[in-house]
Specification:
Length: 479
């Protein structure tokens, strides 16, 4: 996985941090946070916090005491140990798109299917730039709602050997994800020692945790699995329109959830999550790849480091409806800040389109190309005597050229980045080859990768055990 050793881009002054700190303290203590699960409220009440129905009023110093129990860094094991990942510090782990109900394949936009889910999972396995397929890469609408989580986890476990994300749509679904992870990785003791599944817990912003997410969170935290506590903030809709107000709300929501996780299991691994962008004030639609979202990303990284927490943000976001220039420049507007800020867990790294409604095959390839380029760009430059190539100057001399120099011939195969997607053909050759633009070339690449895909080896008995569990649970769920 990628280790980002470049300097962090931090824009908040010490006074700004102090002001933001005072803001989240006022929210949790004076306005409170709702937890729509009686058990969660009871946990806080037993810890001495003031409650009123579903609302919890938190002592800020108590919150910080709990947050301090969370580990600064931790590992997540994969079925293939070579693909295990480290969350925190300078490490950056990248996962593909998460959650869309629709798929775009070329010019066709349609409901996502289980075949789409499997194909995106195979593509995630095929590209080393991605450390994880993620979780709900798309919603397989052709499978029953009550049991599709079983099919998705099974696909993630068998079509990849990388870490994956579990279901969070209910407590029982989370329990299924945990049970299947235990089967895959050697039992409960093994995954409690080194986590084996990551869970995304979204806040129902503003200032509310719903019962389904909380029930799933309880399952994962009690099993010692990392949860990504993520406020869902579109400024102007789920938070005030100013970036500082959104940051303060994000801190209040995330820290409250992290405190709950530590009450459930002190030392439980958590990730400070951020999903922060803005609403278009003309249409009311969500906007992505905006300057405001980039600024929020820079700030969030600095805030998470202030609390000593690993964090999640960024990705290849765009509001564009198709794979065009807008989809590329908006994705870069958040992926470049993702690297500059040093995000530890990056969801939506490949395939996000149309404000998260669509998982797109061609956009997947465009995003992988961006990711490949940024990993090279953010590798520190080595400057030493050999890199100065003085001998090449001696050979060529003034007025010559370096194309045939020994220094060039020794290094030309790997001296520069070689693009996966970009075209560098001259115009005449590009025309002869069919005048394919980046979208068309991306379509050729993903299809070729699927043709070349080979599933990672898995013990046949283990695979059958997992398949039997899926079959049994599907019957128990009535599907």
């Amino acid at each position: 996985m990628f280790v980002n050793r470049m300097p962090r881009y931090e824009i908040l002054s010490e006074q700004a941090i102090v002001t933001l700190d005072a803001g989240w303290r006022r929210i949790v203590s004076e306005i409170g946070v709702e937890f729509i699960l009686p058990e969660a409220v009871e946990v806080f009440a037993q810890a001495g916090q003031k409650t009123d129905g579903d609302k919890v009023f938190l002592d800020p110093d108590f919150v910080l005491e709990q947050v301090a129990k969370a580990p600064h860094e931790f590992d997540v094991q994969a079925r293939n140990p070579e693909h295990s990942i480290h969350i925190g510090g300078d490490h950056m782990a990248f996962a593909s798109v998460y959650g869309p109900p629709f798929v775009r394949e070329g010019d066709v936009r349609r409901d996502a299917t289980m075949q789409d889910f499997e194909r995106f999972t195979m593509l995630s396995q095929s590209f080393d730039e991605l450390d994880s397929a993620g979780g709900t890469i798309c919603e397989p609408n052709d499978r029953p709602l009550d049991s599709r989580h079983l099919d998705m986890v099974f696909a993630l476990q068998t079509l990849t050997d990388k870490p994956y994300m579990g279901s969070v749509t209910s407590g029982p679904n989370a329990a299924d994800s945990l049970r299947m992870t235990e089967m895959l990785l050697g039992g409960r003791e093994s995954i409690e020692r080194t986590p084996g599944v990551i869970a995304l817990i979204n806040v129902n912003s503003p200032l509310r945790y719903d019962d389904r997410m909380l029930a799933a969170m309880f399952e994962y935290v009690r099993a010692g699995q990392p949860v990504v506590i993520t406020p869902f903030l579109l400024m102007g809709a789920m938070s005030p329109v100013t970036i500082p107000a959104a940051l303060v709300q994000q801190m209040a929501e995330a820290l409250a959830g992290i405190a709950l996780a530590q009450l459930l299991r002190p030392g439980a691994p958590v990730i400070f999550g951020s999903f922060l962008s803005n609403t278009d004030m003309q249409s009311g639609s969500p906007s992505f790849g905006t300057p405001e979202s980039a600024t929020g990303l820079f700030c969030t990284g600095q805030i998470a480091r202030h609390f000593g927490l690993p964090w999640r943000s960024g990705g290849g976001f765009t509001s564009s409806q198709t794979v065009d220039a807008q989809s590329a420049y908006e994705a870069c507007m958040t992926m470049i800040p993702t690297f500059l800020a040093g995000t530890n867990w990056v969801m939506h790294s490949a395939g996000w389109l149309e404000s998260g409604l669509v998982s797109c095959y061609e956009k997947f390839i465009v995003d992988v190309e961006v990711l490949r380029m940024l990993k090279v760009e953010f590798t520190p430059l080595e400057v030493d005597e050999a890199s100065l190539a003085f001998g090449a100057h001696e050979e060529v001399g003034p007025g010559g050229h370096f194309l045939g120099a020994a220094h060039t011939l020794e290094r030309f195969r790997d001296c520069f980045y070689r693009p996966l997607l970009s075209s560098t053909e001259n115009f005449e050759r590009w025309k002869r080859l069919g005048e394919h633009d980046a979208t068309a070339r991306a379509g050729e690449i993903w299809r070729e990768r699927l043709e070349q895909y080979e599933p990672p080896a898995i013990n046949p008995e283990l695979r059958q055990e997992l398949a039997d569990y899926v079959t049994r649970r599907r019957k128990e769920l009535g599907d």
